[in-house]
C-alpha cells in the first residue's frame, strides 16, 4: 500500500467523524511529499526523523509533528495498514514554553497609532486590534467573521465553528460597537462576493484576510511602534498575545473593583471560548501588575482577619 493512500484513508476516517483538523491535514500532506512516492513499509525511520526535526532548533513544533504522525500510525497499525511505526522512540528535551507578552495600555495605544504604516489597510488593522483586545477573541475567529455575524443592533458577535467546533455569542460594549459600525460602513464599499456572508475583515477584493498576511503586517506595525522584548525570549510580541493581554487586564480590573475573581473566572472562560477553566488559568500570566493587585487583595484580607482575631 502506498503511503499517500494510507494517509488519505486516515484523513477520510477523521473527516467522517466530523473533525476538520486542517492543520493536521497540511502536515500530513507535507509528510507525504517529504517521503516521496513510496510504499508504507519503505518509509525509513531516519527519513521520518529528518522530517520531524527540520533544519532549525528543537521547538514545540517538533512535538506537534510527532503527535500528528503518532495518531496516523496508531490508526494504520490498528487497521493493519502498517506493521510498525517508523517514529523515533524518544522525544528530545524541549525549550521552556513560550511566555506571552502582556501589552501595557501605552503599548496598545502605540500599536493603534502605528497602523499608519499600512496605508491601504490601516483602518482594517486598527479595527481588528480593537476587536481582539475588546473581546479576547482568537485571531482566527476574528478573521472568520462574516458581515452577518456582526449584529450591531444587539451588540453581539456570532463566533461559528471555533477551535472546538462550537458556536458561541460574544456580547460587545457600545464603544466597540461604534468602532465596528464605522468599519462596516467602509467595508460595504468594498466588493461583497457572497453578500452578507462575505468576510467582515477583507482584502481590497472583498475576500477573507489570510492569517499569514495579518501576522506579517502586524510585525510591521509592532516594529513601527517600537515594541520588542529585550530579554532572552525566542519570540517577539505576537498579535495572539493581545488575547492573553485582554484576559489579564480583565482580571486586574476585577481585583481593583474588589470582585470575586474565582467566581468570575468560569464566566471569563465561557466568554473566551475555552472548554475548561484550566485553559483560562493558563492565559492569566503572572505580571508585576497582577501580582501587585493580588498582594493588595491579600493584605486587605489579612488586616481584616487580624482585626477580628
TrEMBL record:
SUPFAM superfamilies, sorted: DNA breaking-rejoining enzymes
A GO BP entry: DNA recombination
PROSITE patterns referenced in this protein's UniProt entry, alphabetically: TYR_RECOMBINASE (PS51898)
Pfam families for the chain: Phage_integrase
UniProt entry keywords in alphabetical sequence: Chromosome partition, DNA integration, DNA recombination
Residues passing through the membrane, by range: none
UniProt entry tagged with the keyword tRNA processing: no
Protein name (Swiss-Prot/TrEMBL): Integrase family protein
Species annotation: Paraburkholderia piptadeniae
Amino acid at each position: 500500500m502506498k503511503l499517500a493512500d494510507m494517509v488519505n484513508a486516515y484523513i477520510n476516517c477523521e473527516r467522517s467523524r466530523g473533525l476538520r483538523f486542517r492543520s493536521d491535514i497540511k502536515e500530513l500532506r507535507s509528510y507525504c511529499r517529504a517521503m516521496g512516492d513510496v510504499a508504507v513499509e519503505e518509509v525509513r525511520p531516519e527519513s521520518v526523523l529528518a522530517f520531524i526535526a527540520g533544519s532549525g532548533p528543537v521547538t514545540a513544533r517538533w512535538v506537534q509533528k510527532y503527535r500528528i504522525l503518532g495518531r496516523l500510525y496508531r490508526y494504520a497499525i490498528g487497521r493493519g495498514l502498517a506493521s510498525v511505526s517508523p517514529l523515533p522512540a524518544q522525544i528530545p528535551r524541549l525549550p521552556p514554553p513560550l511566555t506571552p507578552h502582556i501589552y501595557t495600555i501605552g503599548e496598545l495605544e502605540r500599536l493603534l497609532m502605528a497602523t499608519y504604516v499600512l496605508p491601504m489597510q490601516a483602518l482594517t488593522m486598527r479595527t481588528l486590534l480593537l476587536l481582539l483586545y475588546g473581546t479576547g477573541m482568537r485571531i482566527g475567529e476574528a478573521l472568520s467573521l462574516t458581515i452577518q455575524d456582526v449584529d450591531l443592533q444587539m451588540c453581539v458577535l456570532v463566533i461559528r465553528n471555533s477551535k472546538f467546533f462550537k458556536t458561541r455569542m460574544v456580547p460587545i460594549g457600545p464603544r466597540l460597537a461604534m468602532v465596528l459600525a464605522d468599519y462596516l460602513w467602509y467595508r460595504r464599499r468594498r466588493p461583497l462576493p457572497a453578500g452578507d456572508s462575505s468576510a467582515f475583515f477583507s482584502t481590497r477584493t472583498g475576500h477573507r484576510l489570510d492569517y499569514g498576511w495579518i501576522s506579517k503586517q502586524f510585525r510591521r506595525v509592532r516594529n513601527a511602534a517600537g515594541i520588542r522584548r529585550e530579554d532572552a525570549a525566542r519570540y517577539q510580541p505576537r498579535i495572539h498575545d493581545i488575547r492573553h493581554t485582554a484576559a489579564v487586564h480583565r482580571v486586574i480590573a476585577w481585583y481593583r473593583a474588589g470582585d470575586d475573581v474565582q467566581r468570575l473566572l468560569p464566566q471569563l472562560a465561557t466568554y473566551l471560548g475555552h472548554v475548561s477553566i484550566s485553559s483560562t488559568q493558563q492565559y492569566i500570566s503572572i505580571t508585576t501588575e497582577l501580582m501587585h493587585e493580588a498582594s493588595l487583595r491579600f493584605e486587605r484580607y489579612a488586616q481584616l482577619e487580624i482585626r477580628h482575631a
